[in-house]
Amino acid sequence: MLLAIDPEFHLLDTPRLVIKVSLPFGYIAYRHEKKMIRIHRLRVKPEYRCMGVGSELLDCIKNVSRVYIIVHEENECLNWLLKRGFLAIGMSETFPDGRSGIRFEKVL
């Protein structure tokens, strides 16, 4: 893992990149909120999906009791989150395109 500063997420605690041979495969940006962590972004390049990169990024999160992420209702990672123990809690904030977000939570 490489600790990285992403100017778009300068207020977040620990943006991280997964790199191999100096090429980024994906990244996670999250923020501590009391005893929880909110994942703001979790991205893996399409050509590196299904190779454990996303799971490795989630493994960066430690020392909290709960983690959550709000995902666009048409995001292709919905089943991926469910397979990793996240539960769909309900609908949440609206995205810029007017569609809803789904809040997923996981107790660690």
Task: Characterise this structure.
The structure is a single chain. The chain is mostly beta strands and 108 residues long. It has one domain: Gcn5-related N-acetyltransferase (GNAT) (Aminopeptidase), CATH 3.40.630. The chain has 2 helices and 7 strands, in the order E-E-E-E-H-E-H-E-E. Strands 1-2-3-4-5-7-6 form a 7-stranded mixed beta sheet. The protein is globular and about 35 Å long.
Main attributes of the structure:
108 residues; mainly beta; Aminopeptidase; seven-stranded mixed beta sheet; 2 helices; 7 strands; globular; disordered N terminus
Largest sheet: 7 strands, mixed
Helix content: 10-25%
Structural class: mainly beta
Q: Which word captures the global form?
A: globular
Outline the fold blueprint:
Elements: E1 2-3, E2 16-20, E3 23-33, E4 36-44, H1 53-58, E5 66-72, H2 78-83, E6 87-94, E7 100-107
Q: What is the gist of this entry?
A:
The chain is mainly beta and 108 residues long. It has helices at residues 53-58, 78-83, and strands spanning 2-3, 16-20, 23-33, 36-44, 66-72, 87-94, 100-107. Strands 1-2-3-4-5-7-6 form a seven-stranded mixed β-sheet.
